Design the sequence.
């Protein structure tokens, strides 16, 4: 994915979210589990003070779903997939399949960890210090919100 892609800021935020937030699970298709498990181990090495790390869970469809640790109901923190997420306006939505996006997302998370994220200033990339605007992101990607 090129940095000029309208989805690029959402991919950056999704990677930061996976590293920074208290996520209970990363749900993804089984072929991606080894790479995600490796990433979770790297998170443990890079963030020794963190007490909880996400579990990698299976999902049958070609999606990536982040579930927050403290949540009520079926509202995902992040959803990467083709299903319309208009009913969840606060969910970070990337309208691409896991197969299309996973390599870029994992590489972005590795790059952020190498830079010292989340325990550094300015290393999270553009927009890292600002609050995420999901409405603007969906407008940029021209998806229904």
Sequence:
């Amino acid at each position: 994915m090129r940095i000029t892609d309208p989805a690029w800021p959402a991919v950056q935020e999704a990677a930061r979210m996976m590293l920074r937030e208290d996520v209970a699970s990363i749900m993804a298709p089984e072929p991606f589990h080894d790479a995600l498990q490796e990433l979770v181990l790297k998170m443990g090495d890079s963030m020794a003070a963190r007490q909880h790390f996400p579990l990698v869970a299976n999902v049958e469809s070609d999606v990536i779903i982040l579930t927050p640790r403290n949540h009520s109901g079926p509202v995902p923190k992040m959803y990467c997939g083709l299903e319309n997420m208009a009913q969840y306006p606060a969910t970070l939505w990337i309208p691409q399949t896991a197969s299309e996006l996973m390599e870029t997302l994992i590489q972005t998370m590795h790059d952020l960890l190498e830079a010292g994220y989340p325990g550094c200033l300015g290393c999270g990339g553009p927009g890292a210090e600002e609050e995420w605007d999901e409405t603007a992101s969906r407008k940029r990607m021209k998806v229904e919100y």
Remarks:
- Helices lie at 8-20, 33-46, 98-115, 134-140.
- Strands lie at 23-28, 55-58, 64-68, 78-80, 92-94.
